[in-house]
Amino acid sequence: MIQKRTNPLFSLARFAQLFALVALVVFQHSAFAAEPKKPVVAGFKLADQNDAMQEIKFPRERPLILVVSDHKGSAGIADWITPLAGQFRPQLDFFGVADLSPVPKPLRAKIRSYFQKGLTYPVMLDWEGSVVDKFNYKKKVPNLFLINKRGEIVKSTYGLATDAVLKAWQKEIELLLPPVAR
Known about the structure:
The protein is α/β, with parallel strands linked by helices. The protein is 34% helix and 19% strand. It has a 5-stranded mixed beta sheet, with helices on one face. Helix 2 (77-88) links the parallel strand 3 and strand 4. Helix 2 (77-88) packs parallel to helix 4 (163-176). It is globular, with a radius of gyration of 26 Å.
């Protein structure tokens, strides 16, 4: 029986070609791979402190900042909203959702009254926690979500405002706005 000898250079060249082909496919796939999908917010409705129904739905005319917090986290909200609303209010919508799921039913009227007396803007009251749970919400700190017109969460932050983080938010917001609105 005659054995056929393989030329070592031929097999090495063949391996190099195969390797180059695989590398090319991997490179093209990574270079042209789609951007990772952003989490999408489903629309929702909640009553505010004045028992008026507030609705978040997509698509919408403007991006929005959604602030989610419990009682402990509410102390840090103004440090976020004051500068962002001062700079972007006409171009962005701002909504707040209060996590009131720990409040016992007999105290709800008193808590609603507290919101009515203390706030001049609507805050959605989530008595069951059904909305805040959808946002990977962190208790005891302010939670901010920048949501584009399509309902995609573009940026999220949990915690107190700092100058550096506020600047990063301002840059991200500016990317969402049309050049005329900036």
